[in-house]
Predict the structure.
Amino acid sequence: MRLTRRGRTVLAITIGAFALGVAFGARSLNLVVVSGAVALVAGYFQLRSVTVPQVSREVPPDDFVGKAHTVRLRFLDPVDGGQLRRPPVASVCDDLGAGLTAETPGGQLGDGSPIDYTVRYTARGEHRLGPTTFVVRDVFGLLETRKRRRGTDSCLVYPPRYSIALAQSVVSRGDSVDVSRQRDEFDRLREYDRGDSLRDIHWPTTAKRDELVVKSFAAPTGEGDLTLSGGAASGRADELATAVTSVALALLDLGLPITVSLPNGTLSAADSGATMVLLTRLATVGPGAVPDPDADIVVDAGREDTTVQIGETTWRFEDLKSGSEPITGPIPDSWGQTHHSTNEQRRMEVSV
């Protein structure tokens, strides 16, 4: 409990009036002294017994870094959880995790109406909202105290996604990718046909002819998902998550089935409905070695740079991005879950 600016002013006037009364015996100053003292004591006892209301929080949806959403705080009776009947005079704000920033303050709890504030997602991961802090003042505004209402929620922030022009140009001519599982003897170079594996493209010849050219092998090939594997050096997990998110979503948007292996596990995203599960995994992936160095696409966030290897050719991720700003559009409904998920639901998704 502490004095507000108004409280410090009243206290100073009260002490000054008392000093003048003692020195000069002015009876008219007694009224000032008594009034100030009564107001301060009454404020102390009021705040000493104040109880803050319960808080119900409407959690914003999971989304990408850079997006902003509204959080709504509703207030309930502290005893029975029903309608709040006697709200205290208080300022209200939520404590936020490191990856979230409040763009607008919480607000004033006046008649007990809900309070909205805007939060911006600044870093990937699962981030905390709450507990709620109440700064309560007495009716005269002389004293204030801080009280916390326990209870937190969380939202998941996905890595930023960039447009990858190369991935779109490579796969736009085919509806699916045929992954070579058995490779024997090199046969010849030929033009790309629908269904050819992305890893079979001969990039040097493709660059010279300005058309896709693939390597043909003597042994027959099997069919399966396109494989993507990624790893990161210590402290470079954010770069890994951004690169894998950008490349994987570019392929999924074009209907290509992929299997993604990361330091925190392997999952199959055979269609766009599994995209949210993949994003959940990418939101929390940490550093680690590339699980499958022989994958069709290998993303390596090394200490110096992030590279993307497709077949025999390696690019810097920065060179593959078709823009300097991440994609900021809404999450498509076809991706599946677009609303906030509970911690239990996320654990189930990651275990798939």
